[in-house]
Protein 1
Amino acid sequence: MKTKFAVVVLALLAVVPGRSLLAGDSAEPSRPTGPSRASALLPAAPATDACCAVAPAAKGAAPCCDELPAAAPLAARSLYQLDAKWTDDAGKAVTLTSLRGQPVVVAMFFASCEYACPVLVSDLQRLRAALPAAVREQTRFVLVSFDVGRDTSAVLAAYRAKFPLDAGWTLLRGAATDVQDLAMLLGVKYKQDARGQFAHSNLITVLNSGGEIAHQHPGLLGDIAEAAKAVVGVAQRAPFIAKER
Amino acid sequence: MWRSPQTSTSSRDSERLAKISGSLFKPMFSRHHHLSAAFALTLAVSAIAGRADHTVPSAPAGMVVIPAGNYAPLIRTKDEPPSVPVAAYYLDERAVTNAEFLDFVRAHPKWQRSRVSPLFADVGYLAHWASDAELGPFAPAAAPVVRVSWFAARAYATWTGKRLPTTAEWERTAAAGFTSTNGATEPGFPAYALVWFSKPTPDTLPSVGLGRPNFYGARDLLSLVWEWVDDFNTAMVSGESRGDTGLERTLFCGAGAAGARDLTNYPAFMRAGLRSSLRASYVVPNVGFRCAQSVSP
């Protein structure tokens, strides 16, 4: 099962330019930590880090990379320690660790939500539009569903099409306990009522390139300037964090 | 290293919470100590009488069975039904002890004090233990384990093949009196349930299982420590999605309490309030847990 999963991840990553380094990590599913060279994943890394932005095979030719450990452990408060297996709207397996190395904006929702979630997603779109183009390019927007019963990959795909949400967005579904874990870590409260609808917190969370919470924006229709600033800050800081490791 | 404002404050919140809740109760230890033997017989009798329902199998060792029934949430919105059905379940007769939790961390070193991820347990996790795998004088073997996060409690429950009880399950069990399923109508019981809140937490907690068993046979629910429930993070969420997290800040003003089922149930308010202020990584000196299991169909 694990082997099969790793292959799926490899296939997924193969189509994402500049992310092939992740494959080396995915081939070792027994190791919970993420890929070693977050800096290599950043398309806009400054010149001092540029020598690290090469394949592991070329490691010897890049002395400045030698100080980096072979497999940098995740930060102590990285949400990517959750080793759950998620599924995206294309039916592909995704781990949170695969999001490492870029700013991530995450929110929890459910597809049949008629009230808050469309507003929440539009808030996220507003946030995305407010980002400088270069930052927007490298920032991933992730929506995770509460509705483990009804939100299949097909339902999530339809949700993506309806808005529409482009390739910068990842829509995820997972097992009930994994959804609960993530909600606990984000501080999102949710409860399913008798009709199957979910009452829930509306919370936008900005994660840094290591998967740590950098900023949280509660509520709907608020001023997203602070959140946008946080994403930009994370994007600027990302190479530094990568180098630190 | 980048640290989030959200997580860096959580340890302080834990401490503050501990101070607040710690001043609220003290177990009725001495009173129950000498009564426990007498009630053991009562328990045996009531266990036979109370569990005569042959549709529910007998409980596993150390657990009591709570037959299917209804739970009336303390706080609900106008759209929610006044009571929700709860399937039959098993609940640990008593809270998990230090000795039992020590077995767990020995089997799973990643849950030992020095190794646990700060993501899953705040600073102060098992701080009253002598070391990673040594209880010491402040953590008697038979006392309830406290200073454990929700993540740690759930990991323990999973390790034993059980789970944490839901809020509905826990509250339904705790609503029982000594002789009936509804303690609120039992003479003297509501007053008994309040005593605990008036005394501070002792420095060293007494042993589990000394409290008088309630109607179902569960002990110490209202007199030893507060307890984690699986879905504690559903507290303070109404049926109205448009009311965002701001709801949590307003629910305990007058308007919030107006939706409550029973305004006289002070302990239930306290528990709801505590749950709404917890986060899953918090470790609190008087919050422990017990496990539950579903009754297989």
Protein 2
Amino acid sequence: MNRPAFSVDRLLNTSAAWLLALLWFLPLCYAVWTAFHPAAFEAHFVLTAPLTLENFEEAWAAAPFARYFFNTFLLVTLILICQFVLCTLAAYAFVRFDFPGRTILFTLVLLQLLVMPDILMVENYKTMRLLDLVDTIPAIALPYIASGFGIFLLRQTFMTIPKELDEAARIEGASFMGVLSKVYIPLAKPTYLAYGLVSVSHHWNNFLWPLIVTNSEDTRPVTVGLSIFSAIDSGVEWSVINAATLMTSGPLLIGFLLFQRQFVQSFMRAGIK
Amino acid sequence: MLKSTLMKAVATTALCFSTWASAQAVDLQFYFPVAVGGKAADTIQELTSEYAAAHPDVNIDAVYTGSYQDTVAKVITASRGGNPPQLSVILSTDTFTLIDEDLVVPFDDYLTSEEDKKWLDGFYPAFMENSQTGGKTYGIPFQRSTPVMYWNKEAFKEAGLDPEVAPQTWDEMVEFGKKLTKKDDSGNVTQWGVRIPSSGFPYWLFQGLAIENGAILANSDGNKTNFDDPKVVEALEFMVDLSTKYEVMAPGIIEWGSTPKAFFERESAIVWTSTGNLTNMRDNAPFDFGVAMFPEKIQRGAPTGGGNFYLLKGASEEQTQAAVEFVKWITAPQQSMKWTKATGYVAPRPETWETAEMKEYAAGFPQVLVARDQLEFAKAELSTYQNQRVTSLLNDALAAAITGKSDAATALEKAQADADAILSEYR
């Protein structure tokens, strides 16, 4: 008796999902279309339009992208590794050790989430100059590695891990570091995966701070190369811009598609949306 | 024995000399934004390495710094962080901001000889309006432009107009526009007569209309605006009327970035946009097109635009001196010509246009001369203290009038009142 109602409901749900997916997908479709066709077909959607890779060639030649990709790769790897190490240790300390001022310290860490990194740009620049790091990749990474978000996230995850497991490991003679590496870290894997994705994509796309703190080709990431196409004075060349955009976001897109299942699952478990 | 001693002495002297020379070499860092497509960044790098090759006593490092806005952010951050570049290209309209932030030094202290003063007088006065204030020169024009009107000759022919003649007055523009606006059978417009883009920074092209109507938007001290001047109101009413009353321009906010595309696709027969588009137009327009000065109301007029060289505080005496020498070199005819050809920016010194090579270039592509000739009527681009805030007040007023949320007079009066509140402390 309820079946028809149920299938109408299902139909609505499915079509709404499709509609949203399509809306989300449209800009990407347009980017793919313009990137693979000559500029004359930017606004003409003819199936027989000639395919070309010229836009990619032009985009690739406009800036030293090979070097920029290498720099970005170094940058996101450096940030990710440092964040994992720092945030894990900090979160572990907040969860398992009782020390005076713990709550205040944790509140301070949380406060970091409320401060826009852009406000600190000048102060960060001064610090980098003091450390003589201006125009290096560590200078781009340093302000981000003590991530309040990462500490908070890992702390919440570690808190859900039953204390019994910890105690059992302790009784077996594991040291503090042993407990961390054998009990906490393996159980928090989904959180690491989810946080890693957020961190990598954020720093892959970061533009202003890297632009400000670096000066030379040897240290700049892909976003700086991409910015060369946002030339407002002379009109927008969609085909080349989209080719460049696809090119620079390609590795992330492919990575996401490959590991999609793991990401979705870990997001559900880690509770990030 | 004697010979080898001599050789040693020579070698030592040579060594001393070379270390002395490199110890004396001046390090210069120079930030530059890129606002046009094509090979602008490559041309700058090429020019600086050419300079470095000819001047071994100067190490010059040209740093690409994104858009104009990114460049200002970087200059301010680096200066506050105690690491400013010695030289930077920044929007000419940011002069007051840079003075207010106490980041720049005027060129005058380094241009003391008669010859230097003559050199300073060798720039187009229209470009210097945005570069000088309070009797001091803070900017040297470099990547400067001015907006012009492009028209589609084929569309003119189809509409029964003389394809070689652009509208000369506002009335003609409306009259031509009516003939050029085409509708299909169901009444949808397939080709608009006129397109004056109004997204992002509508104040720039609007300023052209205001100047043509005899209004000046801001004084040269940068502390007083005239947004509620009746002539400004009239100019805005005209801009709105183009869509609502005369129906020759698309209603609502018109996108700046897609304007060349709309021109190529014949969506608009006449478009107003920067000379920075000239090379793009020449390479991609599928029809014959003309370039003309803006039409006049009571006079011709257009704003200038683009970036100047600025000297940043915090450099040593030698560095600033070297920076000034570099600026002199890069604005000289030979270099300026290369830059103009690569980008479409207007060479800022008349002498560049007098060179045989430039004349030959202009003969083959006479459209480049229009922007230069318009300079005679051009005025300073709107620039005040707290420039971004004041300009966005005007932008908001223009958007309100264009979208019909408010009438021109009310919107501009409000913008003027808000601008007064910001600028009163600078008077």
